[in-house]
Specification:
Residues 143-213 form the HTH luxR-type domain. The protein folds into 2 domains: 2-131, 3-Layer(aba) Sandwich (Rossmann fold), CATH 3.40.50; 142-211, Winged helix-like DNA-binding domain superfamily/Winged helix DNA-binding domain (Arc Repressor Mutant, subunit A, Orthogonal Bundle). 51% of the residues lie in helices and 14% in strands. The protein contains 10 helices and 6 strands; from the N terminus they run E-H-E-H-E-H-E-H-E-H-E-H-H-H-H-H. The longest helix is centred in the last third of the chain and has 14 residues, at 178-191. It is globular and about 45 Å long.
């Protein structure tokens, strides 16, 4: 796997690069600003971009805006965003930015190396990895959506899908069989009116619907 890292803090950037290298993941570029991120993505066409939301010069949303620009230049680019805080609008902007894997993790999650590396590989494969704290805050907004038609168990399954868990992992967490998980997911797709499509990932679309509720 080939990765581009965009992080203005040198020590954090080097630390993430080391974690990836120890797991056999190559960093083809490590940059400190948004313009350099876009240039690196266009030049290297990586399997994943790991991006800090806030970078110089204003330390607001430069990283996120650069990631969205990069996805325009390289459609389907998987992006894993790291943020110091839960910033709901940023998370939704990223998740709504098109096809391809997406992830939004709080930086403190990087300390759990195994989970972080799992998120890296999951997003690079086109999946999702959303921090549970982000999910909790987005849910708290409580807007009406088709998600309200799900049963409590189906909502639990969809929440774990949003975290990026596989069917097997969901079954283990909820102590139910893989067949039961597949049935719940089928019901979720039906209630959210997500028909099979060759161009879109129903699992990601379900997660987006869930986070926008």
């Amino acid at each position: 796997m080939r990765v581009v890292i965009a992080e203005d803090a040198v020590l954090i950037r080097a630390g993430v690069e080391r974690l990836l290298a120890d797991d056999g993941i190559e960093t083809v570029a490590a940059v400190g600003d948004g313009d350099a991120l876009v240039d690196a993505v266009v030049a290297h066409r990586p399997d994943l971009a790991v991006v800090d939301v806030r970078m110089a010069p204003t330390f607001t949303d430069e990283g996120l805006r650069a990631a969205l620009r990069a996805r325009t230049e390289v459609p389907g680019l998987p992006v894993l965003v790291l943020s110091q805080y839960v910033e709901e609008s940023y998370a939704l902007d990223l998740l709504s930015s098109g096809s391809g894997g997406v992830g939004y993790l709080l930086k403190e999650r990087v300390a759990d190396v195994a989970d972080f590396l799992d998120a890296v590989r999951r997003v690079a494969r086109g999946g999702t990895a959303i921090d549970p704290e982000v999910i909790a805050q987005l849910m708290a907004r409580g807007r009406r959506s088709p998600v309200g038609d799900l049963t409590p168990r189906e909502t639990e399954v969809l929440a774990l899908m949003a975290e990026g868990l596989s069917n097997l992992a969901i079954g283990t967490r909820l102590v139910v069989s893989p067949g039961a998980v597949e049935k719940h997911i089928g019901n979720i797709f039906g209630k959210l009116a997500l028909e099979p499509s060759a161009d879109e990932h129903r699992r990601v679309r379900a997660v987006l619907t869930y986070l926008r509720r």
